[in-house]
């Protein structure tokens, strides 16, 4: 499947990361990262919960092109904890007449697992076409904090927005789907829908009840942001949505919300992740 | 045309602002936007309708309404319930979800009282699931009611979209952001957008991206006196 429904000529590339808890410390026990996927060596901060491992995803190709078809699966074993982020934003390049890129991320979080999946925003360049799907399967007692954000970038400033964005984030529990957030948008409609801002995003949490109110309280004083929180208590889900006036405000929003969530859940601030 | 007169009269009745659907209690984020200085007059209201309210209804509510109408017309209540459950999963803005359920259930209650075919049956089916708090969304119920009134899909959609647009314009008048005559001018102008949108194919999958008004519905302080519930 591609953003335009056309047949893709690109070779699908599938990567996977397997985290396991071993005596209270999480280790990367399995990895398959074919080109263009690349990862850093996992490391730990003492202040992180559950022996959490931190890992940076990188791309050796410089972003998403044409009809790239990339898939990533992150599996969290029982009780494992990981913070997975990216080194930088993902640039989605002009599709140049091709069908568009597909990015399919699957997050499988076992019982008692804790995953922070916080990639930097996708930067949608003029003419870019992207189908972005994130599906999180959450087990009993697991925790998820995940971000999904986009920035519409028109470097020429000549009113040539991205081509198309199809975006879907799904949360699936042990007994079936819990929530599906999806949209399908032409780049020419982006600024009309956002009220003129170039950046939009959300942070979704599962199994982290205290995190939602803490995130919106931390975001409210920030300049250049317009944010609101949805609470679905019966499903243990919070969704923080925000518009940001530029990339700086967007990055600040993501960092601030994550830090507030961590403090609410553990009582102590996380160590900043350098990029 | 003659055989469409009765359904048309019923459509006009149920789409009238005096019909007790409960929709008057919601402003779709307009009250917040007005307080924040983002909606100040006819031009702003027109823009919000054209860029947020109408596109969101076309891309999100319309596919559910169409699916529910088809299922109800085919006398397939299980398919209607499945459509309602999917609408629940995809309603990821809590206050808009709550508003949609409240209006939907109010519509069901009123139509059951006045004997609209299918209304009391669907209300009872929702209750029988034991998941009443997660079902009865407005576009699904509108599909059921439209089928019950003998409206075709296009008529049902036009009535539902008109109700949303009228409700938004009415809220703008009550908030003092739009005069009564200006409201009519805005409604006349937006009708072109509505007609164009309804003439386009129904999206294969429901989806929503209107973050400005969606976030506005969420930005409400507890205890703050408000005219509207969203």
Automatic annotation (TrEMBL), chain A:
It is found in: Cytoplasm. GO terms for cellular component: cytoplasm. GO terms for molecular function: nickel cation binding. It comes from the Bacteria. Its main location: cytoplasm. The keyword Cytoplasm applies. Keywords: Chaperone, Cytoplasm, Nickel insertion. Coiled coil: none annotated. Belongs to the UreD family. PANTHER family: UREASE ACCESSORY PROTEIN D (PTHR33643:SF1). Required for maturation of urease via the functional incorporation of the urease nickel metallocenter. UreD, UreF and UreG form a complex that acts as a GTP-hydrolysis-dependent molecular chaperone, activating the urease apoprotein by helping to assemble the nickel containing metallocenter of UreC. The UreE protein probably delivers the nickel. This is Urease accessory protein UreD. It comes from Pseudooceanicola pacificus. The gene is ureD.
TrEMBL record, chain B:
The gene is ureF. Keywords: Chaperone, Cytoplasm, Nickel insertion. It comes from Pseudooceanicola pacificus. Pfam families: UreF (PF01730). InterPro entries: UreF, UreF_sf. UreD, UreF and UreG form a complex that acts as a GTP-hydrolysis-dependent molecular chaperone, activating the urease apoprotein by helping to assemble the nickel containing metallocenter of UreC. The UreE protein probably delivers the nickel. It is found in: Cytoplasm. Its main location: cytoplasm. This is Urease accessory protein UreF. Required for maturation of urease via the functional incorporation of the urease nickel metallocenter. The keyword Oxidoreductase does not apply. GO terms for molecular function: nickel cation binding. The lineage of its organism: Bacteria, Pseudomonadati, Pseudomonadota, Alphaproteobacteria, Rhodobacterales. Belongs to the UreF family. GO terms for cellular component: cytoplasm.
């Amino acid at each position: 499947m591609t953003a335009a429904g056309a047949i893709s000529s690109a070779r699908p590339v599938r990567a996977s990361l397997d985290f396991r808890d071993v005596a209270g410390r999480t280790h990367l026990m399995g990895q398959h990262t074919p080109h263009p996927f690349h990862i850093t060596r996992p490391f730990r901060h003492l202040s992180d919960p559950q022996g959490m491992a931190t890992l940076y995803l990188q791309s050796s190709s410089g972003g998403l092109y044409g009809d790239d078809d990339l898939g990533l699966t992150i599996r969290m074993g029982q009780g494992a904890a990981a913070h997975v982020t990216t080194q930088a934003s993902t640039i989605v390049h002009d599709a140049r007449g091709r069908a568009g890129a597909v990015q399919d991320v699957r997050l499988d979080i076992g019982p008692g697992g804790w995953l922070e999946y916080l990639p930097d925003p996708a930067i949608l360049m003029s003419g870019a076409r992207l189908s972005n799907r994130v599906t999180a399967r959450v087990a009993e007692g697991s925790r998820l904090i995940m971000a999904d954000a986009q920035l519409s970038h028109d470097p020429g400033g000549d009113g040539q927005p991205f081509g198309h964005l199809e975006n879907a984030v799904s949360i699936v529990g042990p007994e079936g789907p819990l929530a599906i957030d999806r949209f399908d948008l032409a780049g020419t409609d982006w600024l009309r829908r956002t009220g003129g801002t170039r950046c939009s995003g959300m942070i979704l949490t599962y199994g982290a009840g205290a995190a939602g109110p803490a995130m919106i309280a931390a975001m409210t004083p920030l300049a250049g942001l317009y944010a609101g929180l949805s609470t679905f208590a019966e499903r243990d889900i919070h969704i923080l949505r925000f518009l940001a006036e530029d990339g700086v405000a967007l990055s600040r929003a993501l960092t601030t919300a994550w830090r507030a969530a961590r403090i609410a859940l553990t009582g102590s601030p996380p160590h900043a992740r350098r990029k | 045309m003659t055989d469409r007169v009765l359904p048309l009269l019923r459509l006009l009745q149920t789409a009238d602002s005096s019909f007790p659907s409960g929709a008057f209690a919601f402003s779709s984020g307009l009250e917040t936007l007005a307080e924040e200085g983002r909606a100040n007059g006819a031009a702003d209201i027109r823009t919000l309708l054209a860029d947020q309210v109408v596109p969101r209804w076309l891309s999100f509510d319309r596919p559910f309404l169409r699916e529910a109408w088809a299922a109800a017309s085919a006398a397939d209540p299980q398919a209607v319930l499945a459509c309602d459950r999917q609408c629940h999963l995809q309603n990821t803005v809590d206050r808009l979800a709550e508003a949609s359920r409240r209006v939907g259930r109010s519509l069901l209650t009123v139509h059951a009282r006045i004997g609209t075919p299918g209304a009391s049956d669907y209300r009872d089916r929702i209750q029988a699931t034991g998941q009443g708090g997660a079902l009865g969304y407005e576009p699904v119920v509108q599909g059921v009611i439209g089928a019950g009134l003998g409206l075709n899909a296009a008529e049902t959609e036009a009535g539902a979209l008109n109700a949303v647009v009228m409700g938004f314009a009415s809220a703008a008048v009550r908030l003092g952001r739009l005069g009564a005559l200006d409201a009519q001018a805005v409604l006349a102008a937006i009708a072109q957008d509505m007609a164009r949108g309804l003439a386009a194919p129904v999206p294969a999958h429901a989806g929503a991206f209107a973050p400005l008004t969606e976030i506005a519905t969420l930005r409400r302080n507890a205890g703050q006196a408000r005219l509207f519930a969203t």
